[in-house]
């Protein structure tokens, strides 16, 4: 029983953006899978409609409640504050996941 409590869990709050800097904030347990889904427009919704395919910011959490609290905090910020958050670690809005999928067969799009 004690081992289950000690098991590390990873949760992520992340921001996806379009080339024109439309912003989407989300939470996931599997950042790599979720970013891949956004990049390949696997799910209907905001990110597909607005072409939010670039991962521009993320933070890891051990507890889901902390990741959700961070997501809510970011969603409550004014756009200028969201942009400042991104630019604090990624001033040129580069796709932080750009190299994650190199060499992966992406013919199943």
Describe the SSE topology.
Layout lengths: L1 H5 L4 E7 L5 E6 L2 H9 L6 H4 L4 E8 L2 H12 L3 H11 L20
Antiparallel strand pairs: 1-2, 1-3
Which features would summarize this protein structure in a list?
single chain; 109 residues; alpha+beta; GIY-YIG endonuclease; 3-stranded antiparallel β-sheet; 5 helices; 19% strand; disordered N terminus
Notes on the structure:
The chain is an alpha+beta fold and 109 residues long. The protein has one domain (7-89): GIY-YIG endonuclease (3-Layer(aba) Sandwich). It contains five helices and three strands. It has a three-stranded antiparallel beta sheet with strand order 2-1-3, sandwiched between helices. Strand 1 and strand 2 form a beta hairpin. The protein is globular, with a radius of gyration of 15 Å.
Outline of this structure?
The protein has 109 residues and is of the alpha+beta class. It has one domain: 3-Layer(aba) Sandwich (GIY-YIG endonuclease).
Domain module tally: 1
> Strand order, biggest sheet?
2-1-3
Fraction in helix: 25-40%
CATH architectural designation: 3-Layer(aba) Sandwich
What is the CATH top level name? Alpha Beta
Output the helix-strand order: HEEHHEHH
Q: What's the alpha carbon Rg, rounded to whole Å? A: 15 Å
Percentage of β-strand residues:
15-25%
Distance between the termini: 42 Å
Mean pLDDT: 89
| Sheet of most strands | 3 strands, antiparallel
């Amino acid at each position: 029983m004690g081992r289950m409590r000690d098991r590390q869990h990873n949760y992520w709050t992340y921001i996806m953006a379009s080339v024109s800097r439309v912003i989407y904030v989300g939470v996931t347990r599997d950042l790599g899978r979720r970013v891949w889904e956004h990049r390949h427009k696997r799910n209907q919704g905001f990110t597909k409609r607005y072409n939010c395919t670039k991962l521009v910011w993320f933070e890891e959490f051990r507890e889901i409640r902390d990741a959700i609290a961070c997501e809510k905090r970011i969603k409550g910020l004014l756009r200028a504050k969201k942009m400042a958050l991104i630019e604090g670690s990624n001033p040129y809005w580069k796709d932080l996941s750009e190299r994650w999928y190199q060499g992966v067969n992406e013919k199943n799009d």
